[in-house]
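[audit] Reproducing an earlier prediction to check determinism. Same input, same settings, fresh worker. If the tokens differ from the archived copy the diff job will pick it up downstream; this log only records the rerun itself.
[audit] input (325 residues):
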Amino acid sequence: MKHIAFANHYLRILKISGTKQIFIGLILAVAFMAAPRTLLAAGPAPVNLRSAAHFTILATSTTTTTGGGTINGDVGLSPVGSQGIPPAKINGTIYNGDPNGVAAQAQLDLTAAIIAASPAQLPGGINAGAELGGKTLVAGVYQSPSGSYGITGDLTLFGGPDDVWVFQMASTLTVAVSGRVILTGGAQARNIFWQVGSSATLGTSSVFKGTIMAYASITMNASSTLDGRALAQNGAVTFNGDGGSLSIPAAPLFIGIARTRTNATVVLNTSPYFLVTLQSNPNLSPTNWTTMVTNYPATNLWTFTDTNATPTATKQFYRAFITMP
């Protein structure tokens, strides 16, 4: 089943009239009524996963399950391995040593992401102790003093929707039975990254948020859930949990438009490797939206030229949304 991200967090509508640019949307309408303020993201920049971004599970040798729940997102193995998760449990595409090299490229991009999140590239990580349970942490880079992280009880991450957390550990990540990662203040799972030097284990009935980038294996035990990704660089992924879903990507955002006498060029800032749909409408009638193009952009900036924006088309509205597995 496909899920379409189509709410005011995801939807931006742009109107062109003559040569003017007018941005219209619920978020802007709210901003006009609120007191002026500047919001700045805290923590480092998000880790660029590139083509690994659309995988919920990525492994090298084996994927297995003993009755786990549904996976929303793609599953990949590279090179060819033992893909033991039934296709009926996967709302996405399976890439098992695929001839087009999708999973192989994702593994290369995962390696680059692990390096980018490492202490060598993000030095000076905060020492919050090796046990994260019972703590509330704001955005930033955290480095385990012992090389491993454990979560017993609840770890609360407090921050805004654009704040970023990176957790660095030279060895293991272990989430205890019923351990939870809780997000408050608008924090988003898409902005949480766990750089694991060896293996990660999510305990029975645990609730986890963020992208696990593990050098070795990843194990999700019974009744655990994952809002993020389980990406293993050199090992297996065992999925015995109740569910694994890709984190909701950031909303497509109109960042520019150039109008000529014959066309209009629309520029979007969107999440790479996710299906984006661009639609147009001459009068904002709910029944007049027409799809102009769908695409899987490989970069954040994506450009489309609307040849229907002619001199006789005095008004044109646009909206864009992302469709996820």
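[audit] rerun output stored. Observation attached for the diff report: Residues 102-116 form the longest helix (15 residues).
[audit] end
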